[in-house]
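Student: I would love a firmer grasp of how sequence relates to backbone shape in proteins. Thank you; the sequence and its tokens follow:
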Amino acid sequence: MSIVDEIKQSYRQGGALTRLIYINVGVFIAVRLIQVFFSLSTGSVDSPLLQWISVPSDPMELLFKPWTLLTYMFVHYDFFHILINLLWLYWFGRIFLEFLNPRQFLGVYFLGGLSGALMYLLAYNLIPELYSNHSSSILLGASASVMAILFAIARLKADYQINLMFIGPVKLKYIALFALILDLVSISSLSNTGGHLAHLGGAGFGFLYAGMIMKGKDVTIGFNKAMDSLVSLFSRKSKLTVTHRRPVSDMEYNKRVVANQQEVDRILEKIKASGYDSLSSSEKKTLFEASKK
């Protein structure tokens, strides 16, 4: 199996966490490759791409780029930025999924990201010191979404312990508190003030979400239904036809099972003799379907 096939299979079979990581990495690679192409073709290092997929601090500009409220939370430009975000997403996402389901995980990721964007926009348009520089500011990265996941699970399972290298077992509530303090003291940094404010917006949503879950309320249900409706608008509607088939007898069913197993055995023998790449697309599909049973 080629590397590309392995990646595709891993993405198809992976859960919500795996797919989010793949999407973030894929967007990062695409952005950097487009930047290289743009630099070589124009001689300029300033690509306009980031301006079209990151949240602008100017509300009027945002009106013409509403999609950036979703795309920004998958966009990274610096290697260490995406490395840290994805490590945190992996660590705390796995803990989150131990106690909550993948739909809730995705809902918190998106709603936390939107909360971070809202905090960023409010700050840049209401705080005079930030407003003076808002025309050239953009927001990108999954940090707000990751903070939402961290603070949600840290409030739900405050005493859950993880082992940190050179430190030992540390409770989630102290990790969240450390992240909060780090953002608060970093707000004055002129290089990433908007980013730290967005972190606080995401953290605030995660904290409030956990409180609602404790009361039996889940705001991600409504959000996920809205996203499902939005996706269905752009998905191709299948033309369904209703056919009536006679029931399959036990003998016919057993024959089919035996025939399918014989076909799988034949494919496995072919792999043993000639390798996976020798299979046809239909044989690969048959093997994949058999692996899911």
Remarks:
- Residues 16-42 form the longest helix (27 residues).
- Strands lie at 55-56, 138-139, 161-164, 168-171.
- The two ends are 21 Å apart (CA to CA).
